[in-house]
């Protein structure tokens, strides 16, 4: 199986070389294009949580049981 792969790749290489030679013989030229620019990775997220941010977060709404307890406390006053 490996011998078949080697033979197939050698044949493919010969075909590519023949196509390349035909291209250059017909007056073809290679032009170099500009490379791509590398974009830096975005900064990693911090593990630290800012205390001010925690205070600004929306609090959970009270459950019905908590509301009933608050009503009873308010009526008791």
Key traits:
single chain, mainly alpha, 77 residues, rod-shaped, 3 helices
Task: Give a description of the structure.
The chain is an all-alpha fold and 77 residues long. The protein contains three helices and no strands.
Rg, Å, rounded: 36 Å
**Describe the biggest sheet?**
none
Arithmetic mean pLDDT: 86
N-to-C SSE string, H for helix and E for strand: HHH
Principal-axis shape: rod-shaped
Low-confidence stretches: none
Straight-line distance between termini: 91 Å
> Percent range for helical residues?
55-70%
Helical stretch count? 3
User: Beta-sheet strand percentage?
Assistant: under 5%
Computed structural class: mainly alpha
How many strands? 0
Domain count = 1
Topology readout:
Layout: H1 2-25, H2 51-56, H3 64-76
């Amino acid at each position: 199986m490996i011998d078949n792969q080697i033979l197939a790749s050698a044949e493919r290489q010969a075909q590519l070389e023949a196509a390349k030679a035909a291209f250059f013989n017909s007056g073809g030229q290679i032009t170099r294009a500009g490379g791509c620019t590398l974009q830096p990775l975005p900064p990693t997220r911090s593990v630290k949580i800012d205390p001010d941010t925690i205070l600004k977060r929306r609090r959970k709404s009270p459950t019905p049981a908590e509301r009933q307890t608050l009503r009873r406390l308010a009526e008791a006053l």
